[in-house]
Amino acid sequence: MNGTYQSTGSGCLSPYVLYGMIAFLPAIILTLIINGIWFTDWDWPFTWLVVQNVATFFVYGYDKKIAPSNAVRVPEVILLLEVLTGACVGALAARIVFHHKTRKLSFRLAFWAAELFSVALVALYAYRYFS
Which residues contact 75 (CB under 8 A, 6 or more apart)? Predict the structure, then answer.
């Protein structure tokens, strides 16, 4: 997929909506469950970071697994949004473990920009939380 999406008119969800829901809905639900039901000592942002990093690792792994097939891939914008929402460790670990998205220069540049932004946000959160 070249980054654009053309509707087939069949009423199917676009890959952006479909994979966006697959990527973020479980993380949102698990964060709510962990903090709302289990009453952990974790604060909401920390719970989100843990859950989102694990979810991102699996989304990157899934995308790598379906890469050789003709299945609709996870759009790059979804993979980058995962990083921008705090999943800097999960995305980097998945790229290393699965050797995923390591050749395309435009993705690598966008990925590292998103990583820097995400690391800065996590560092800011950690600084405010621990001081």
Answer: 1, 3, 5, 15, 16, 19
